[in-house]
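Researcher: We're teaching a course module on how sequence relates to structure. For the next exercise, students receive a sequence and then see the predicted structure as tokens, so they can try to spot secondary structure elements on their own. Here is the exercise chain.
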Amino acid sequence: MGNILITGASRGIGEATARVLAAKGHNVCINYHTQKDLAHQLVVDLTQQGVKAIAVQADVSQEQQVVDLFNTMDEQLGPLTGLVNNAGILLPQMLVEQMDAQRINQLLSTNVTSYFLCCKEAVKRMALKHGGQGGAIVNVSSAAARLGSAFEYVDYAASKGAIDTLTRGLSLEVAREAIRVNCVRPGFIDTDMHTDGGEPNRIERIKPTIPMGRGGQPVEVANAVAWLLSAEASYVTGSFIEVAGGR
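Model: And here is the predicted structure for the students to work with:
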């Protein structure tokens, strides 16, 4: 089984992904920024399943902290085989005309720069030309990249559009290095992120517009991530899985 790093893994989709991967026998590095107690409790839960798990604090928008995060994983878990770029923020709903540079830059550094930095460190470890054994990267994007999130979070949607482009471009750069790069686009998933955006009951409001008539659960996204990391997806790269209930 593999050694997989998940960024932003203390709650929501990241936490669910960690649990699904541990259940499949993978060792997991739980990255967190501020939710120390949740991250360490998750480690306890995962180790009880018989796998190795560690929690490592890092702000993945900061380059040196990303380098330290990957080095810690190297030392404590062993060679990296998979990366799940999941860390991200959602800021309170706002029209574009109201946004200032501080908000935009904060969101883009957390949601985009972090993915680039983590992909860089992963490729340096996985690529055949660097002595690696290959591996898989899964980026967590959002259906917002397609939908635009007008009147709510155009900045967030734009950040996820960047992740879609990163996924496609990087997949072509590293395909001959035995590294697969794919993406999941969750739709309206029942997580705390909606509270961060100022509307805890957002899914209830949006539900009538979703073809399946409900919001999704984090584990439903996690299962897609796990498949893309697995050998069952061995000929899949540069691809996207929509986990959005048909919307």
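Model: If you want an answer key for the exercise: The chain has one domain: 3-243. The longest strand covers residues 179-186.
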